[in-house]
Amino acid sequence: MRFRGHPLAYPVVVTIGALAMCFAWAPFGDMELRGLLAALVLIILGYTGFRVGYALRSTAGIGAGMTARRIRQQFRLVSRSWLECTTDGRTLWVPVYFDPALMTLTPTRVGMDGRAIRLGELRVYPAGRSRNSEPVGRLVDNPSRPDPDGGELAATAARWRRRLLLDAQPAVVAPFVGLFWVYVAGGGTLAFVAVTVVAGTTVTWLSAVRGSDPS
Hints:
The chain is an alpha+beta fold. The protein has six helices and seven strands.
């Protein structure tokens, strides 16, 4: 599988971009700003490593023989893909990293390949722990039959520019973070611009690494 088409490719690339932004501003900052950027680098590396490791190694409670269907969650500015997995009257909801193939997924029997979760030919990666109750917010079910327009819609949703724009929506708070930093630590216009840009990038990274859904 090519890296660009892998479900974890997008969050990894956004992580690299967030780290690059931190390093780019470091030479222009004072000691306080450099300390902030260093702390952010450690947080971004640590949290991304944890999320990617979890996605590759955990089954999040999903087992072979379960029947899974995909649902899309919309809660405020958060949008994620979930698998609703049922077996023997028990239901689990598991967040998964977005893959365009999820948009055309109909109820499918879960198969396991080692610790890999497979829905037919599709491998899915957990984006967090399972839960025994429905996710909060508005839930949209996939059609029970293949959607004739599903392939076209999936191709549109998978465009990285679209995904970045959607993940960057919470970045509207970034200027307020910049103003707060200048109020507390000083630094003037340069510090305001640096913190605003880095805050916006960090919020975008957080949306991506948690498994946002652009559909």
